[in-house]
Amino acid sequence: MSVKVIGASLPNIPWQDKPDNLRPVWRYGGNPIIGRNPSPGVARIFNSAVLPYKDGYVGVFRGEQTDGVPHIYLGFSADGIKWDFQTEKIPFTDGGGQPFMPRYAYDPRLVEIEGVYYIIWCQDFFGASIGMAKTVDFKTFTRLENPFIPFNRNAVLFPRKINGTFRLLSRPSDSGHTPFGDIFISESPDMEFWGRHRHVMSRGPAWWESVKIGAGSAPIETDQGWLIFYHGVTGTCNGFVYSMGGALLDLEQPSVVKARCKNFLLTPEEWYEERGFVPNVLFPCAALCDADTGRIAIYYGAADSYVGMAFTTADDVIGYIKRNNELSEDDTGTGRR
Ligand code: BMA
Question: Which of 59, 127, 171, 206 sees the fewest Cβ atoms within 10 Å?
Fold first, then answer.
């Protein structure tokens, strides 16, 4: 199998060769790449997103401050592994140039579309919902309209327009530790007005993702479909367990799922995933891809305390997803009822 990735070359993608053939996705041996107390006033960084920028990398990081409130911080890195963080929160301004600081902001995603970088996160909008901003230089950040009324989480844009409109995955939720959730997609001509909402994927039926699912990294375009890494949650007598799954969405009509892996791709098993502020959480928010080699580097939050990385290739992971494909009627429909 040889998957064609439709995207840019990234010859300096962080990388470590596959240690064995036991798994389709393998962890970085140097994990966690970000440990506790990473910068002044920030106790933990996790659930964060990264993109190539200039000769290196830029990231938007969920920093849990020492008062317990999460905000988003910028970071820069030459190699995508060792990071320098800015100590001030990202200084958003609203459309009129007035400063805007969300009451809290967490689980940021970062997506480039036609040279503009969009940050998408969860914030208070009289309850948990999605906030968005854009930047072209990582110096000034303009807040956009909130795309949805509450409650919602886990929103991430596609990296290009599809048939002329922007597309946004999201997960309608409640304002707490939501005990349900499917992935939906919405369309916009201008990043302001969102509609034509469609259902993409349901939670379950596999036990590891039977409570809720939520989009993770921005979709990666391949000739087999849009490759997504998402989180799936199961419930236990000791609380939720978050694992990472993978699926392929139709290129032209991404509310249609082409293949969905019935097995998790990664589940908490290392100390930094099993032990922390919230044990047993593996929460992907970003994936880099080199179109020349098909190499993929995934960034995930671990136990709400650390950032970990994992690697795969488009061939490895899409081959595995297809071999273990199990679709439900909810997945394969167009998503409109
Ligand atoms: C979810 C989000 C994530 C977090 C996860 C596990 O509801 O708040 O940020 O990683 O719970 O605590």
Answer: 127
Distance from C-alpha of 260 to C-alpha of 282, rounded to nearest angstrom: 19
| C-alpha pair distances (Å), 201 with each of 63, 190, 204, 266 | 29, 25, 9, 19
For ligand 1, whether the C-beta of 47 sits within 6 Å is yes
Q: Are 171 and 214 in contact (CB under 8 A)?
A: yes
Amino acid at 163: N
- Alpha carbons 123 and 277: distance in angstroms, whole number: 20
* Closest C-alpha to ligand 1, atom 11: 177
Spacing, Cα 296 to ligand 1 middle (Å): 24
Q: 248, 257 in Cβ contact below 8 A?
A: yes
Q: What is the pLDDT of residues 237-251, one digit of tens each?
A: 999 999 999 999 999
Which residue's CA is the closest to the ligand 1 atom numbered 9? 107
pLDDT digits (tens, 9 = 90+) for 88-120: 999 999 988 899 999 999 999 999 999 999 999
CB atoms within 10 A of CB 54: 8
